[in-house]
Design brief:
The complex is a heterodimer.
Chain A lengths: L6 E2 L1 E3 L13 H28 L15 H23 L5 H27 L9 H31 L7 H33 L1
Chain B lengths: L6 E2 L3 E2 L5 H8 L5 H5 L5 H30 L9 H37 L7 H23 L24 H29 L12 H32 L13 H35 L6 H14 L15 H13 L1 H17 L6 H23 L2 H7 L3 H31 L5 H27 L16 H31 L29 E2 L16 E3 L7 E5 L6 E6 L6 H18 L3 H17 L9 H8 L3
Antiparallel strand pairs in B: 3-4, 5-6
The chains are: A mainly alpha, B mainly alpha.
């Protein structure tokens, strides 16, 4: 039995694909919006840092600037980690599951190394968060970024876990590619945060 | 439609005798006690937002009524100073964070946006459900605090140094700050769901130029939430850190600054006013055409005004700080900016008036509330223009004049449109019409009561009565005006009781609404009332700004989506051309479980910073439970290779 509407004009979408990569993917857009939110948070803390700078005659006020070389090393690691992230994005749309799995593994290794170096960074900031407003800002910036770093590390590990199962197909491959976008955000925000923490106390 | 994979065919027979039952089975949401926690359909979540926010509106109203009783006569003793501080703080926080935004943006948005877009569910429905549970958690936190004598007591903005560790020992300010975290994470999650739904799930043919103004406004508000809410999360987190682990953001003795708090707070706080007000204008712009039987006048102007308001709303925050000793140049700049923002609002007003002027007015109940809005909000806007001027602002700063102004703006801009919207959409939500006679009683009682209470406050303010005082001396001669102001509360209370009686009576015995009782033009009226869980039997296509009014006699429907899996159509952001199909997620208990672990971590962090590392693993476990894929992706690896290997 046919429906009451009987004959009528239709827009047939049965031929459309049911997975999309890159900006056509709905999760990609949500990811961009989340990065916008988190980027706004970084921007506001950084704005607070420069605002508080105007409230002190010395900068850093009564502390030495942080030890610079762990930060520099981590920035170099960030830069190199873009390679596996980009590799995942190139391989995912073609359905190359093995390549994506390897890429995720390497990216997780990079993230682990960044976290390990970050621990050393925390020990060489040359201030305690409760010393003054400058120290509070520095600790908040590096703390928030570390939160992102650990979150992304866990996310990469989880997607790596999925890639070891037979569920790594279709939209999951798109998710792996989107994970790389988020890693770029962690890298770019890491560069900016490191510039604020390590460079600005030396010339402001 | 430009996509190569899509075609509009000649009329053909659609062999779908049992399509409705298959869709109903595929999109079914669980029932029963545990089912309630797994439901992820936007109609259920939107309704919960509205009901919960309305309950908070009632609770906030009770606090206001008790405060009015206290101020009725001098040296009254209904409330002591400590209780009064908690009452006005929790009243303001409740109305802003637990009622206005959750009702006007999240409640109406989550319920209506997917229907007006012509799709089957909101984007990321589990995130929408998670957002609701967090909002509820934030509300419970604030109110449990009040009921256990830990009610926030430093004002709804919780300024430092008053709210800092030196002047507010105990946990009252921490409860407030963590309530902010709960509600803002909730609003941000919802903003993403709504923005993505609008940008990627609109019906084919609903180009940006044909998008209903309701969707334009929800989109602009979503972006305002995305850029404004982080500021209040940052500043409330700084406050928590200062109180919990002795950071020094706001301690001037070691380089901190109390004004930093105000800058960050109002960078959120003024856009927040528009996050509350724009949903009201969205309702007005949606209802005016329906009750004047014509397309809205100045569609493009209204859209441009809404977008302009979205931008300008971020450039006026310092006018909340005129009395803090800012440089004269800043005062002049922000005075000018505050006056400029009147222009887009005025443009909207003139467009509504022009629509009404040239239309055939239907004197239905929602339209009556719109006329109430025009009157009340106009007064609030005019006193706002006065306050934008620094000399006037200084004169009446922190007096009841300001209280009168922002209640005219917020109740005029949100509550009057809210009731218009409720009378308009409740028939869609419940399937039954509200009683018109009771609705008229509700309106007139509320309108009279509101003006009695708040218009009087202008005079109290001009006579020097400060805000936030729990009592006053008889020598001040404020008694008579306070009696008038309190008498309005009786009218408003009666009005709300009439509304509640009307709602419960009509829900059971009201006249059946049918699909489109107002003969309206947008897509939510193209389906049953209440809508089934699949929203539309056939996804619609759109041919004009009022989809139903402008439809061709044989307007095409979308075919080719599967009905055995919950599949939705993804269209592109600008032209709404179909791009691909996507299998969305079904019911799940994991968003609720995640909200429990996140809530426990947030609440724990009021007492110890160790709650974060201890709570994080549980949050991660529940998140993995939420996101771990079950079943197979609709496209197999081989299909993906086939689809994408050709570039």
């Amino acid at each position: 039995m046919d429906r009451i509407c009987g004959e009528r004009a239709v827009l047939d979408v049965s031929g459309l694909p049911n997975v999309a990569f890159g900006h056509k993917n709905v999760t990609w857009l949500a990811n961009v919006l989340y990065m916008t939110i988190e980027g706004t948070m970084f921007a506001l803390v950084i704005a607070s840092y420069f605002y508080l700078r105007t409230r002190s005659t010395d900068w850093p006020p009564g502390n030495s600037p942080p030890y610079i070389w762990f930060g520099v090393a981590n920035s170099i690691l960030f830069l190199l980690s873009v390679l596996p992230a980009r590799w995942i994005q190139k391989k995912a749309p073609s359905g190359d599951r093995a390549a994506v799995t390897i890429g995720l593994f390497i990216l997780a290794i990079f993230a682990s190394a960044c976290i390990a170096l970050r621990v050393y960074e925390f020990t060489t900031l040359n201030c305690r968060w409760s010393d003054n407003a400058y120290a509070s800002c520095i600790w908040t910036l590096i703390g928030v970024h570390s939160g992102h770093l650990v979150t992304e590390w866990i996310e990469t590990l989880v997607i790596f876990g999925v890639s070891l199962t037979d569920k790594m197909e279709g939209t999951r491959l798109a998710d792996a590619a989107i994970n790389s976008d988020y890693w770029y955000f962690v890298v770019v925000s890491g560069f900016i945060v490191n510039f604020i923490i390590y460079a600005t106390p030396r010339f402001l | 439609m430009s996509s190569h994979s899509v075609l509009i065919s000649e009329p053909k027979v659609i062999p779908t005798s049992d399509s409705a039952s298959r869709l109903a089975r595929t999109w079914r949401q669980p029932s029963g006690f545990w089912g309630w926690f797994s439901n992820v359909h936007h109609t259920a979540i939107g309704t919960r937002y509205m009901v919960t926010a309305f309950i908070f509106f009632l609770l906030g109203g009770v606090l206001a009524a008790v405060m009015r009783l206290q101020l009725t006569r001098p040296e009254n003793n209904v409330l002591g100073p400590d209780a009064y501080n908690q009452f006005f703080t929790v009243h303001g926080s409740t109305m802003i964070f637990l009622f206005a935004v959750p009702m006007m943006f999240q409640g109406f948005g989550v319920y209506l946006v997917p229907l007006v877009c012509g799709t089957r569910n909101i984007a990321f429905p589990r995130l929408a459900a998670f957002s609701y549970y967090l909002f509820l958690g934030g509300g419970l936190l604030l109110w449990i605090g009040l009921l256990t004598n830990t009610g926030a007591d430093a004002g709804w903005f919780s300024y430092v140094p008053l709210a800092g560790p030196a002047f507010t020992p105990g946990k009252r300010a921490d409860f407030w700050a963590q309530m902010i975290t709960f509600t803002e994470v909730s609003a941000l999650g919802t903003a993403i769901c709504i923005a993505v739904t609008i940008l990627r799930h609109r019906a084919p043919g609903m180009t940006l130029n044909r998008m209903p103004i309701l969707l334009w406004e929800k989109l602009v508000i979503s972006f305002m939430v995305i850029f404004a809410m982080p500021a209040v999360m940052v500043v409330s987190s700084m406050l928590l850190l200062d109180r919990l682990v002795s950071t020094q953001f706001f301690n001037p003795a070691v380089g901190g600054d109390a004004l930093l708090y105000q800058h960050l707070f109002w960078f959120f706080g003024h856009p927040e006013v528009y996050i509350i007000f724009l949903p009201g204008t969205a309702i007005v712009s949606s209802l005016v055409p329906v009750f004047t039987r014509r397309h809205i006048f100045g569609y493009t102007l209204i859209v441009l005004s809404v977008v302009a308001t979205g931008f300008l709303g971020f450039g006026v925050w310092v006018h909340h700080m005129f009395a803090t000793g800012i440089p004269q140049m800043s005062a002049s700049f922000f005075t000018a900016a505050s006056l400029v923002i009147v222009i887009p609002t005025a443009v909207q007003f003139f467009c509504w008036i022009a629509t009404v002027w040239n239309g055939r007015i239907q004197p239905k109940l929602p339209m009556l509330w719109l006329f109430g809005f025009f009157f009340v909000f106009l007064i609030g806007g005019l006193s706002g223009v006065m306050l934008a001027s620094v000399p006037v602002d200084w004169q009446v700063h922190d007096t009841f004049f300001v209280v009168a102004h922002f209640h005219y703006v917020l109740i005029g801009g949100a509550v009057f449109p809210m009731f218009a919207g409720l009378y308009f959409w409740i028939p869609k939500i419940t399937g039954r019409m509200m009683n018109s006679t009771l609705g008229h009683w509700h309106f007139w009682l509320f309108f009279i009561g509101f003006n009695l209470t708040f218009f009087t406050m202008h005079f109290l303010g001009l006579r020097g009565m400060p805000r936030r005082i729990y009592t006053y001396s008889p020598d001040m001669h404020w008694n008579a005006l306070n009696v008038v102001a309190t008498s309005g509360v009786a009218f408003m209370t009666a009005a709300i009781l009439v509304f509640l009686a009307n709602f419960f009576y009509s829900k059971k015995y009201g006249e059946l609404a049918g699909d489109n009782p107002w003969a309206a033009g947008s897509l939510e009226w193209a389906t049953a009332s209440p809508p089934p869980h699949y929203n539309f039997l056939d996804l619609p296509t759109v041919n004009g700004r009022e989809a139903l009014w402008d439809a061709e006699p044989d307007q095409a429907i979308v075919v080719g989506l599967r009905d055995d899996v919950p599949e939705v159509l993804v269209t592109n952001s600008l032209d709404s051309d179909p791009e691909h199909k996507e299998e969305t997620v079904g019911p799940s208990i994991w968003p609720f479980l995640t909200s429990i672990t996140v809530s426990a971590t947030f609440v724990g962090s009021i007492f110890t910073a160790w709650a974060i590392p201890y709570g994080a693993p549980f949050v991660v476990i529940t998140l993995i439970g939420w996101l771990w894929p079950r079943g197979h992706s609709p496209m197999t690896r081989e299909e993906a290779i086939e689809e994408y290997s050709h570039g």
